[in-house]
Amino acid sequence: MMRTAPEQIGQVPNYFFWIRQGLQAVQDPVDGQIVSLNDEGRVVGRAKLPAGFTIGEIQSETNQVRLINGARQVTVPCNLDPPTASVLQDGPAPATATRRLRLVRKGRNN
Predict the structure, then answer these.
(1) Strand locations in the chain, DSSP E?
(2) pLDDT tens per residue across span 33-92
(3) pLDDT at 110
(4) Does residue 83 sit in helix, strand or coil?
(5) Of 17, 34, 60, 82, whose CB count within 10 A is highest?
(6) 71, 12 in Cβ contact below 8 A?
C-alpha cells in the first residue's frame, strides 16, 4: 500500500488486540477498518466497522472481544473467520460493560 498524503506518512495502526492464538487485529489508521493478521504478520482479512462507530475501549473475554464506545459495542467472536467477515455489526453495550478506571500516578509518593 502506498501512502498518498503527507499526513498519512508514518501513521501506525491503532487498537492492537488479540482475537485468539494465531490471530491478532489492529485498526487501520487511514480507513478505520479492522485488519486481521496471522502470526507471520500477513493480512488475512479486513472488516468495516459500522458507520460512525469509533473504538473507545477494548474488553477481552473468553469467547469474544468487545469494542466499546459509550452505549454501543461491536463484538468480535474468537472463532472469527477473517476472510468471510467483511462487515462488523454493532449493538447496545450491556450494563455490565462498564468502563474500567484508569490509574494515574500523580507524584512520587502517590
Answers:
(1) 14-20, 23-27, 34-38, 43-47, 57-60, 64-69, 72-77, 90-92
(2) 999 999 999 999 999 999 889 898 999 899 999 999 989 999 999 999 999 999 999 998
(3) 53
(4) helix
(5) 34
(6) no
The CA–CA distances, whole Å, from 87 to 11, 31, 51, 92 equal: 23, 13, 10, 17
Distance CA 47, CA 20 (A): 17
Q: Which residue type sits at 74? A: V
| Cβ pair 88, 77 in contact under 8 A | no
Contact of 99 with 57, CB cutoff 8 Å: yes
Instruction: Name the pLDDT band for 96 (thresholds 50, 70, 90).
Output: low
With beta carbons less than 8 A apart as the criterion, state whether 91 and 72 touch: yes
**Count of beta carbons in the 10 Å neighbourhood of residue 6:** 7
C-alpha cell at 11: 501513521
| Secondary structure of residue 65 in the 3-state scheme | strand
Q: Smallest Cα–Cα separation from 15: which of 3, 6, 28? A: 28
Chain-centre distance for alpha carbon 107? 32
